[in-house]
Specification:
Largest sheet: 2 strands, antiparallel
Distance between the termini: 20 Å
Strand content: under 5%
Number of strands: 6
Radius of gyration: 33 Å
Strand order of the largest sheet: 1-4
Helix content: 40-55%
Structural class: mainly alpha
């Protein structure tokens, strides 16, 4: 027989059932507590992206490559000047102050050799079509160096040097790194390579959109997939992303900064993430002045994360017991290894930090010592402890993160604009002699028409030098859908924190539009000419916009949301086919020819062989089918990620790594309850004896004695649940120490224990008080010994 504790106490029936269930569950290894993805790690995003997202990214890349061949050379906004600026660095001509630079002789020669103008007027833009008879054979086309030695007319104003040189320096380094590259390459090869470099810069956009939507939505598969499909649905982005333009590097760096800021908003206030964020913003500033809108966004994200951490910690303290006699470490207290009881999402209780109240952590050392009567204060690993509320570091003002990120931002790109202000007296110096743009007279109504409708049109599809435009139907329909899904994400967000996050992400698009409006209105007020208005200037906020659209698609309902990826893919394919059917024949099909003649004309002017073009076309079709299969898979399986529902209760977690959050919440609650009970018991004899662990890391196994199924954590931003540990029944002290369970005799009055259905059901689950069988071991839990399977 197993004797009861020597202090004369026995457990109540409910406590015995709880302890036995915990001891039995401890034999099963618990999943990891801290899930991947709560801290910003770029390599982790690459490693955890689903196959469907990779298929979308590869499809987008193939579409960009196709657009880089379909558009004639130099039929993209400012592309001749962008290419000439790259070749200035290749030839070692430096980056002089604007106003003193013209297009080089090689740049003028490339314009005259490209399908840009006509034979009689090669420097004047021509709408085509361009035929194979006009194309020079590839092996006879001159190199850039040969064009530099060929006499040519004086070049026009080179306004590109008003921008920082990062984009052009990257391209120049790549050209020089190619064997036999640099200015020894043919002019068409140089343009083709530079276009492919831009393709590589824009290609990660679907992956970045998925990463941001996946993090902000707590793992919604529909939100991430739909967000990844948004870049594919914008034909103008495919056109600009496949041309030589510094906006492409701004789109990449702005997208990277947006994803890191999303992680900050979700509680990742680590110094490493601050370094990533500052680095991305600095590189964006070294690309274009429009990146200045990212600076206040990043700073405000840290202020919001700090404010939320303090509010969550205050809420946990209010709900915690007035005093913890067991000595459980509070949130942020030292764990014995110089760490704090924090989480990867420590800045708020958005995910599950409030699930266990303000109690300390369970885990590897979760069980009481063998003597009982004292809380277990042995050191434990944070990965085994689980979330315990906002850490002490998250509750401190984020001045270290802001200083570190700001220092990197200034070192990598901010210094350029500081030098401009100090040396030239302007944030971005103007280019004297540059064309003023379209003359409108003193007609502000016409200006506002171009500003609003022109920006929307050039955001969706105005190809070449605004030579081919999408019709009104797809432009207005697409705009209405973007507004609808983003508004739906705001309306149906789980809480106000998500709404604030979405509004902060929307700031990038509105900030870019505001800067463009101020600059163009200033010029129009002086000169009555309109210029500097284009939808591509807003692409730095595309990832942020796609995140909101993805969350809106996921908020359409449980069943309708499954269909959203298919609808998004269908819309993207429709817009791309619509645009290609307008652009391809416009530039390449002869007046009396067909599409086959247009294909021959395009391959004749292309820098690559016809086999390469066929490979790109086949890749687009194959990847489109693969993406369709991925969207169908989402339709079949739906939402099975670790995403809390809008009601505040978590859905069933299928990922073992996410199950750890729920396990940790239960561990904390169970440990707080045991410590509260133990604090009121006299300490038994032999309490100073060392523990005799029966598992790898604790008295009862790898996760201690807390293995029962935990409750669901609260939804993102919801207040932590009240602490109910004080409502649990307290142990009862019988009259004798060797009291045995009463047995009802025939004819005697039944006791309350034998007649209670709850007690009878619990007694059936409790362990036997007889000697354990040979195939079991005993484990000490809450001062009592219970059988435990080997």
């Amino acid at each position: 027989m197993t004797a009861p504790p020597s202090d004369g106490t026995v457990q109540s029936l409910g406590d015995s059932v709880d302890s036995t269930a915990a001891a039995r569950a401890a034999t099963t290894p618990a999943p990891a507590v801290i899930p991947d993805g709560t801290r910003f790690r770029p390599w982790r995003i690459l490693r955890t992206a689903p196959a469907t997202i990779w298929a979308i990214t590869l499809l987008f890349t193939a579409v960009l490559a196709g657009w880089s061949v379909m558009m004639p050379q130099y039929h993209a906004p400012d592309e001749p000047n962008h290419v000439d600026a790259v070749m200035r660095l290749v030839e070692g001509k430096g980056w002089p102050h604007p106003g003193h630079v013209i297009v080089t002789r090689g740049g003028v020669g490339a314009i005259m050799a490209a399908p840009y103008g006509t034979d009689k007027r090669p420097r004047d833009l021509s709408a085509g079509p361009f035929t194979a008879a006009q194309a020079m054979p590839r092996d006879e086309r001159p190199s850039w160096e040969e064009l530099e030695r060929t006499p040519a007319p004086r070049g026009g104003i080179q306004q590109i040097v008003q921008h920082p040189p990062l984009y052009y320096w990257v391209n120049a380094v790549i050209l020089k790194a190619i064997p036999g590259g640099g200015d020894d390459l043919r002019w068409d090869e140089i343009i083709g390579i530079l276009r492919l470099v831009s393709v590589a810069m824009v290609a990660p956009l679907p992956l970045l959109a998925w990463a941001g939507a996946h993090r902000l939505s707590d793992g919604s598969r529909v939100a991430g997939t739909c967000a990844a499909l948004v870049p594919l649905a914008i034909p103008e982005l495919a056109h600009i992303g496949s041309s030589v333009n510094n906006d492409n590097l701004l789109v990449l760096t702005g997208g990277l900064a947006t994803v890191s800021i999303v992680y900050v908003l979700r509680g990742d206030t680590s110094l490493r993430t601050a370094a990533w964020t500052g680095g991305f913003v600095g590189l964006a500033l070294m690309t274009k002045s429009l990146a200045i809108v990212l600076v206040p966004m990043a700073a405000l994200a840290y202020v919001l994360a700090w404010s939320r951490a303090r509010r969550d910690a205050r809420a946990l303290r209010v709900r915690a017991p007035a005093a913890d006699p067991a000595g459980t470490p509070p949130p942020g207290a030292s764990t014995g290894r110089g760490g704090t009881a924090s989480t990867d999402d420590a800045a708020s209780t958005d995910d599950a930090a409030g699930a266990g109240g303000a109690a300390g952590a369970g885990g590897a050392g979760g069980a009481l010592p063998s003597g009982g009567g004292r809380a277990d204060i042995r050191p434990f690993r944070l990965a085994d402890a689980g979330p315990a509320g906002p850490s002490a570091a998250a509750q401190r003002p984020p001045w270290r993160q802001i200083l570190l990120g700001g220092a990197l931002m200034v070192a990598l790109g901010g210094w350029w604009w500081i030098v401009n202000v100090v040396r030239w007296g302007a944030f971005q110096p103007e280019t004297p002699g540059f064309p003023l743009g379209q003359y409108l007279g003193d007609d502000w109504d016409a200006y506002w028409e171009i500003l609003i409708n022109g920006t929307i049109l050039r955001w969706w599809g105005s190809f070449g030098w605004f030579e081919v435009n999408l019709t009104t139907i797809p432009v207005r329909t697409g705009t209405a859908l973007v507004v609808f899904f983003f508004a739906l994400a705001l309306i149906r967000a789980r809480n106000w924190r998500i709404r604030v996050d979405l509004l902060l992400l929307l700031w990038v698009t509105w900030g870019l539009f505001g800067l463009m409006t101020v600059q163009s209105a200033k010029n129009f007020d002086k000169q009555f000419h309109v210029s500097g208005i284009s939808g591509r200037y807003l692409y730095a906020g595309l990832v942020a916009l796609a995140i909101g659209i993805g969350l809106g698609a996921a908020a359409t309902g449980r069943y309708l949301a499954r269909v959203m990826p298919l609808l998004f893919l269908a819309g993207a394919v429709t817009l791309q086919v619509w645009s290609i059917s307008m652009v391809f024949p416009h530039f390449w099909r002869p007046r009396d020819g067909d599409l086959g003649d247009a294909w021959d004309d395009m391959t004749a002017w292309s820098p690559w062989s016809e086999g390469t073009l066929v490979f790109i076309a086949v890749a687009v079709c194959a990847l489109a089918v693969t993406t369709l299969a991925g969207c169908l898979w989402v339709l079949v399986i739906g939402e099975r990620d670790a995403r809390p529902s809008r009601s505040g209760r978590a859905v069933v977690l299928s990922d073992p790594r996410s199950q750890g959050l729920r396990q940790a919440a239960h561990n904390r609650a169970a440990r707080l309850h045991r410590d509260t009970l133990a604090s009121g018991q006299p300490r038994p004899e032999g309490a100073d004896a060392p523990d005799a662990p029966t598992g790898p890391t604790g008295p009862t196994g790898p996760e201690g004695a807390e293995g029962a199924q935990p409750p669901s954590p609260p939804a993102h931003g919801d207040p932590p649940p009240p602490d109910r540990s004080s409502a649990r029944p307290q142990p009862q002290t019988p009259a004798t120490t060797n009291q045995t369970p009463a047995v009802a005799q025939p004819g005697s009055a039944p006791t309350s224990t034998s007649t209670s259905p709850t007690a009878a059901a619990a007694a059936a689950m409790s362990p036997s008080v007889t000697e354990p069988p040979l195939n079991t071991a005993t484990a000490e839990v809450d001062g009592a010994r219970h059988p435990q399977p080997r």
